[in-house]
Amino acid sequence: MISFLHTLLHEHATELVPFCNVRLHHITDSVHLLSTVESDQEGGYPVKIRTEQPKIDGFLSRQEEDVCYMKFDAPCTLHGKPFRTEPEADQGKEKKKQPEAMTVFLCIPVAPGRSRLIWAFPRSVDSWLDNIIPRWLYHIVTNTVFDSDSYLLHIEERNFATVGLDNWHKACYVPTSCDNMVITFRNWFRKYCKHQIGWATPMVNQLPPTPTKDQLMERYWSHVMQCTSCSAALKWMRAMEVALQVASVAIVGFLAVAKGSLVTSVVRRAAAVSAAVLCFAASRWLASFVEKSFYFQEYVHAYKLVPWRRQWISRTDAARWLSMSVSAVAAETPLPRAVNEEEMPATGEERFDWLDQWYPVAPVCDLDKRKPHGKMVMGLSIVAWFDGGGEWRVMDDACPHRLAPLSEGRVDDKGRLQCVYHGWCFDGRGSCQFIPQAPALGPPVHKNSKACVASYPSVVQNNILWFYPRSEPEYRDVLQRKRPPYFPDLDNPSFNTVFGVRDLYYGYDVLVENLMDPAHVPYAHKGLMPIQTKEDPGRYVHHLS
Predict the structure, then answer these.
(1) Distance (Å, rounded) from C-alpha 99 to C-alpha 85?
(2) Are residues 58 and 165 both part of a single domain?
(3) What is the rounded distance in angstroms from the CA atom of residue 367 to the CA atom of residue 386?
(4) Quick one: 388 exposed, middle or buried, by C-beta within 10 A (0-12, 13-18, 19+)?
(5) Does this UniProt record's set of keywords contain Zinc (predicted)?
(6) Among the listed ranges 290-304, 452-466, 483-497, which one has the minimum average pLDDT value?
(7) How many structural domains is the chain composed of?
(8) Is residue 249 situated within a structural domain?
(9) pLDDT greater than 70 at residue 242
(10) Pair 404, 276 in one domain
(11) CA-to-CA distance for 415 and 384, rounded, in angstroms?
């Protein structure tokens, strides 16, 4: 009888909709149907993702009947377009230019348990906003997104290390189509890399200790000091904070000195006191804003409320969902590709060469030509600087004299990189040009090969500085054989592009996996990112047997 009533309700739901608006909940309680309606308040829904078989250079993934795509170009680049633009029908009028947008993520291995993300969002839609809104304002929102899942991913990486990456497919249950990209990436990482990154220097393959939460989510060293826009905004706001405090004290002091001789009106005196209070309150608010935006802000998921527009569901919608077939919806969602437990690299199989790749250093907009910049990429400590020949150079961040960091040095008036410890000077090729302690008429010790610094091939492409992590002479012309990935939209003058960079306290593989996972966005980033509301009826029917 219960099964019959359940079938009858599905077959005649169209005629029952007006009745269901008032009596659906009463009927359900009366006949004790084996199903109930439950909504997902955050806005999550099944995502249909189809991925190609991974090759050594990456793979392509398409979503929702080719509405959008995401491509992984090993090892660093993850790029795609969030929506498809179709040409409008020609009706004798001038065709309207379709809006275009693209996402580019550059995932950089730094060290075990550390990674760096460079992102670029070129777009032609609403590009005029980028000419008005400063870049640091975009970064405040983006950094909040990173904070919302940084702690989760940091702990997740340690849980992976506990069970072993070789057992990832056994420890993780990934049954839905949303996980297809993650599964494919893990298969690529296992098949061609054996779950390991080929670091450029000998590295202890062990995760560093877990820092405190304020260190894990700090923004100053991980982003602000690497971003010219945010660092300039921080200096301006700090100066404004001091100016407001000085103004409030000056107003109070003026009132005390005047003693009623200059400000005799009660209204004027009240206005002056109000101005002093407002200046002091504004300085305190600005100090709080600076702390939360540029240093640290606690993020507690339990305090993030569901947006009001998602907190309720009408009974009309409930009746419509009940009237649709669950099996039909489930059949439309492709099953994820099963992970083959026996799939392991065969003897002599092609392996991914981590050192035969170009790696991004930083967006050029975040590099100051007046000083050197220290970075770590692939376990290498490097220094990027602008030489006298008008080119960006990348070298080892260690002076051959006493191994002092060259990134703490300066660029002299001749365009040479000068070590701040003893004054040794180097050109863009890494050759030592001057040793102050060596006699001018003595032997040319600066020409000795031991006085040279390892210099790496480098190039600026798409307004990003790239380098190749091999310093041997045979790789000087590697640019003729292999170039970094190129994105035409980043150089398109009709596009505006917002760049950003952030150091993260979890590894490269966890970073890439997280960017390939669309299902976590409504939950880990609740209220921070726009979610496309898309209802799937199958997931609302739960059997209570």
Answers:
(1) 7
(2) yes
(3) 9
(4) middle
(5) no
(6) 290-304
(7) 3
(8) yes
(9) yes
(10) no
(11) 13
Q: What is the mean pLDDT of the chain?
A: 80
Tokens 């935006």 belong to residue:
293
Question: Cβ contacts of residue 94 below 8 Å, gap of 6+?
Answer: none
Same domain, yes or no, for 406 and 471?
yes
Q: 214: closest CA among 261, 147, 166?
A: 147
Domain that holds residue 512: 49-85+97-204+332-341+492-543
Q: What is the token pair recorded at 393?
A: 């150079």
Q: Is residue 411 a contact partner of residue 426, using CB atoms and an 8 Å limit?
A: no
Split at pLDDT 50, 70, 90, the class of 78 is: very high
- Read off the pLDDT of residues 15-32 as tens digits, 9 standing for 90 and up: 433 434 434 344 344 434
Per the CB < 8 A criterion, the answer to whether 233 and 136 are in contact is yes
Does residue 181 share a domain with residue 162? yes
Question: Is the same domain home to 366 and 414?
Answer: yes
For residues 179 and 51, the answer to whether their CB atoms sit within 8 Å is: no
pLDDT, position 261: 61
Q: Is 361 helix (H, G, I), strand (E, B) or coil?
A: strand
- pTM here? 0.80
Q: Which residue bears the tokens 């003026």? A: 254
Helix axes 135-163, 228-258, angle to 10 degrees: 120
**Rounded Cα gap, residues 218 and 227, in angstroms:** 14
The count of residues in the chain is 545
Which of residues 237 and 252 earns the better pLDDT score? Answer: 237
Kindly tell me if the per-residue pLDDT of 485 is higher than 50.
Answer: yes
Three-state SS string across 277-308, please?
Answer: HHHHHHHHHHHHHHHHHHCCCCCCHHHCCCCH
Domain identity same for 422 and 499: no
* 487 assigned to some structural domain: no
Greatest mean pLDDT among 239-253, 291-305, 352-366 lies in: 352-366
Q: Are 541 and 35 in contact (CB under 8 A)?
A: yes
Residue whose pair of structure tokens reads 């030509």 in the numeric block? 369
Question: 187 and 56 in one domain?
Answer: yes
